[in-house]
Fold this sequence. Notes:
Layout: E1 3-9, H1 11-17, E2 21-26, H2 31-42, E3 52-55, E4 58-60, E5 71-75
Parallel strand pairs: 1-5
Antiparallel strand pairs: 1-2, 3-4, 3-5
Amino acid sequence: xxxxxCVRYFAILRDQxxxxxxxxxxxxxxxxxxxxxxxxLHGFTIPADRLRVAINDEFESWDSKIKDGDALVFIPPVxxx
Length: 81
């Protein structure tokens, strides 16, 4: 079943996508499926195992179910100095 979710991008993902946020129609059932869909579509270079995912402002596991209207953030590793 198709749903629309809001995805926010930060750091390298924002650079690679060229956007900070978008509403994405998807048939993905889980956060993992959604990221893989977006990775293939937009050419993201970071594998999911190097990211964290937050759904509706809460850290979640990659197998968490997503539903229509959810807000997701894929959080890349942070470099500091």
